[in-house]
Amino acid sequence: MFHISNTTKEVLEWIYCIVIAIVLALLIRYFVGTPTVVQQTSMFPNLQEGQRLILNRLFRTFHETPERGDIITFEEPSSYNPSGVKAVYKEQEGWFNKFVYYVLEVNKKSLIKRVIALPGEQVTIRDGKVYINGEQLKESYLADTVVTEVNNEALTDFTVPEGYIFAMGDNRKYSGDCRIFGCIPIEKIESKVWIRFWPFNLFGKMDNVEY
């Protein structure tokens, strides 16, 4: 009969525990929440580079629709040349590539923006302001000097398709967002920004972040 030594048994038990811990960590990270560091300036001054956040991924797990004003993260589109009003994505092929990209998030880039318009809403951008279904959107979270700029290639008058949202950064002049690459499929939203835990003097939930 094959006999396993106590030392080998202990090693196998440690390996088993490590594998379980890694699997649990991946499940929590993908389905529940994960910490992240702000690396972009597009949400300045409400979110600044180096600040640390906790992202709520239960939002994605239960397929919730975001609300206007939510700060979300989503997969960056693969192309900055919109096809109509919809962002363009290149889907991963094969289960291994999908696992590495979507679960391990290797070589995957995410953007952080604020939800401005919801499915079916008419969006108009003119004279530096945003209008939803003909009414000017009150954006108290923006700095007084911020205007919503557009160029010849930007979306300025359109209806958000069903199953999509329109999002922009608070730092409009320095934000590459849905004005350029189109509306984001709700299925591409990864999380909702939940808590800022660093710096400590700004610790708190991010439900109503205003400048």
Describe the structure.
- This protein is an alpha+beta fold and 211 residues long.
- The protein has two domains: 1-31; 33-205, Umud Fragment, subunit A (Ribbon).
- It has four helices and 14 strands.
- A hairpin with a 2-residue loop joins β4 (79-83) and β5 (86-88).
- The longest helix has 26 residues, at 6-31.
- The radius of gyration is 21 Å and the shape is elongated.
- The termini are far apart.
- The model has no long low-confidence stretch (mean pLDDT 89).
In brief, what are we looking at here?
This protein has helices at residues 6-31, 58-61, 95-103, 178-181; strands at 33-37, 52-56, 71-75, 79-83, 86-88, 110-117, 122-126, 129-132, 135-136, 157-159, 164-168, 184-185, 189-198, 204-205. It is an alpha+beta fold and 211 residues long.
Low-confidence stretches: none
Question: Helical residue percent?
Answer: 10-25%
Structural class: alpha+beta
CATH class of the largest domain: Mainly Beta
Shape: elongated
Order of helices and strands: HEEHEEEHEEEEEEHEEE
CATH superfamily of the largest domain: Umud Fragment, subunit A
Number of H/I helices: 4
CATH level-two architecture of the largest domain: Ribbon
Estimate nothing, just give the exact number of structural domains: 2
Q: Give the averaged pLDDT, no decimals.
A: 89
Q: Separation of termini?
A: 72 Å
Strand content: 25-35%
Major sheet attributes: 8 strands, antiparallel
Q: Please compute the radius of gyration using only Cα atoms.
A: 21 Å
Can you count the beta strands? 14
- CATH topology of the largest domain, by name, is Umud Fragment, subunit A
